[in-house]
Amino acid sequence: MNITFMVFVGIICATIARIILGMIWYSPGVFGTSWMKMVGIKDIKPKDGQMAIVGGVITSIIIAAMMSCFITRLGINSIWNGVLLGLSVWFGFVGTSNFGGVLWERRSISWFILTTGYEFIAYGLTGGIIAFFA
Fold this sequence. Notes:
The chain is an all-alpha fold. The protein has helices at 3-25, 32-39, 46-74, 79-103, 109-133.
């Protein structure tokens, strides 16, 4: 198969995986209710929810595409190394940037763990999936 097609398939699969993970992670039965309390949201109006979902899909596509660029350029060809790259990207950029919320916005450590916990898993998952298709 054409490598460009496989990269595209990897980006789509990684995007879908991130969305499914987010749906589970932020569901009321898992962390959704706790997250809403932490950020002070009482309810989510359908229109706001739809816009957030569209934004989440777009950002997931961008993240997967950028991870694909990194994996391709670095010549990563194993799932494990893709996972490690994803976790490294999370640690170097996402986790450290989000910690600013604790330092400057006075967000709680619980908020940091909950929100970046999702990102930690999502970046590792994205890296692994993209590496599988690379």
